[in-house]
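Example 9 (inverse folding). The structure is encoded as follows.
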């Protein structure tokens, strides 16, 4: 199988690069830029990508890769910082730019017979730039292909060594024909499209069997959503009869969700038990206002409950030791937002701690099985269909692991959660009734920690506003707000204000990701 390796210099778009290659059915993984040369070689990459990053090559702590990768004889594509690092490492010169370039910028093609460009390239094209330095002197063997409006080098290439570099980001949708740059690079690198999720499932089953062994049992943190359901189904195939799923009712779910989840799993062949931990979670969250504190509190408590349940279930099987393995539906976007690539000192910034990644306690007795850690959401859904996971589960919107606690800004009390639950149910029901639910990637209501003045029945009110969030996305790494018909928004607002006691104002969030995240906390 062909394998592309991405060396991450800290760009928040690195996962998008991986996503674009996966879309082309080319398998790729990400390592931090400073990964050991031996590890890079052992990956046996067919080609390498050098990502962008937030640093300047002149920073004292600027990320550095091992320059021996440039002598591997493998095709390499540098992007943004990756281009500057490549130029400097090969003897070129990089200077601070006279005019920094951020956002949409037009480039002009200077070399019509470029190896990287093809018939799709026009004389001028829009690109997405984000850099303060520029390559001012080309390394030996390279030629300039395109420049920006300000004259800054935008594309350089050395076709003989199959080394190419772009100063802009082809992975974002703002760049004209962005995917075409990747397609042409793969063609020049002779990388074939041979990545298949069916092969992934078979390989993961073998990997899980080797990881757990022939006698150990496992438990699964089952939320009822797509990720944990597919993970549980995959592990059950790997360890038939040795997996127990636990649905933790934390009191942070949506209205009627616990009953719905238990019903959905009746005929799946999975053993699912409900654990009522509502009082434990609400007590632990008392007085907690900071979103990171809430996420980590929830993550810690989930683990404590699972460790307790592991001992109980272990006794049922007559094992001397408690169950040692826990399955989680962690995805690639969860990992990249919570910390650098697993177990490594990468250069990416932590966006927020997902309760099943960055929110886990440092010391825990359970060992993790995370079979979906390398996949994006749409890949997980496709895998779920292959594994026979029911449609009513695969068609659900994503829902955050910490539940409504991170949609209840400020303290998550039972009273505030009940208000949020009621508003959320009305919202989701109306999306389904109007036919918009299946067009949306994720939707939910956010309860704000402020009060606003209103008028109801000629009387003054001072109650909470709620925000509606609805986005479209392919993988959760980027998202656009959903353009509701104004009359539908008006009807939703009217019903929530009229029917949910404690709410007197409704607003709609029209932020994209980036710069915002899908969830508010």
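The amino acid assigned to each position is listed next.
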């Amino acid at each position: 199988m062909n394998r592309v390796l991405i060396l991450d210099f800290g760009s928040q778009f690195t996962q998008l690069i991986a996503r674009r290659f996966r879309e082309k059915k080319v398998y790729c993984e990400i390592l931090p830029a400073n990964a050991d040369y031996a590890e890079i070689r052992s990956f046996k990459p067919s080609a390498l990508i050098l990502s962008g990053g937030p640093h300047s090559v002149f920073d004292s702590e600027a990320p550095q890769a091992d320059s021996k990768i440039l002598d591997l004889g493998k095709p390499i594509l540098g992007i943004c910082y990756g281009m500057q690092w490549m130029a400097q490492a090969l003897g070129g010169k990089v200077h601070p730019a006279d005019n920094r370039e951020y956002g949409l910028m037009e480039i002009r093609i200077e070399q019509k017979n470029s190896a990287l460009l093809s018939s799709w390239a026009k004389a001028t094209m829009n690109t997405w730039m984000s850099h303060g330095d520029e390559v001012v002197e080309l390394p030996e063997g390279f030629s300039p292909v395109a420049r920006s409006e300000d004259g800054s080098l935008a594309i350089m290439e050395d076709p003989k060594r199959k080394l190419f570099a772009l100063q802009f980001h082809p992975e974002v949708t703002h760049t004209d024909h962005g995917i075409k740059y990747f397609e042409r690079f793969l063609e020049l690198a002779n990388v074939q499209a041979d990545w298949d999720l069916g092969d992934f499932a078979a390989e993961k089953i073998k990997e899980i069997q080797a990881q757990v062994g022939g006698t150990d049992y496992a438990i699964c943190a089952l939320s009822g959503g797509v990720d944990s359901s597919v993970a549980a189904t995959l592990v059950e195939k790997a360890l038939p009869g040795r997996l127990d799923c636990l649905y933790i009712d934390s009191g942070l779910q949506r209205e009627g969700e616990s009953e719905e989840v238990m019903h959905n799993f009746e005929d799946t062949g999975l053993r699912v038990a409900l654990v009522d931990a509502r009082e434990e979670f609400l007590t632990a969250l008392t007085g907690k206002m900071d979103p990171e504190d809430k996420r980590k509190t929830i993550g810690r408590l989930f683990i404590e409950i699972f460790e307790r349940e592991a001992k109980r279930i272990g006794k049922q099987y007559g094992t001397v030791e408690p169950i040692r393995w826990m399955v989680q539906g962690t995805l690639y976007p969860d990992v990249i937002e919570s910390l650098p690539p697993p177990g490594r000192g990468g250069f990416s910034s932590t966006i927020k701690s997902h309760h099943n990644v960055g929110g886990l306690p440092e010391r825990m007795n359970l060992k993790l099985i995370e079979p979906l850690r390398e996949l994006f959401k749409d890949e997980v859904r496709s895998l779920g269909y292959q594994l026979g996971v029911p449609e009513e589960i695969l068609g659900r919107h994503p829902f955050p692991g910490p539940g409504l606690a991170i949609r209840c800004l400020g303290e998550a009390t039972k009273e505030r959660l009940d208000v949020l639950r009621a508003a959320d149910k009305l919202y989701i029901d109306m999306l389904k009734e109007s036919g918009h639910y299946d067009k949306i990637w994720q939707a939910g209501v956010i309860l704000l920690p402020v009060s606003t003045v209103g008028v109801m029945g000629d009387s003054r009110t001072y109650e909470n506003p709620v925000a509606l969030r609805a986005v479209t996305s392919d993988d959760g790494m980027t998202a656009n707000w959903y353009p509701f018909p104004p009359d539908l928004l008006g009807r939703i607002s009217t019903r929530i204000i009229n029917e949910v006691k404690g709410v007197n104002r409704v607003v709609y969030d029209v932020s994209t990701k980036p710069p915002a995240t899908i969830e508010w906390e």
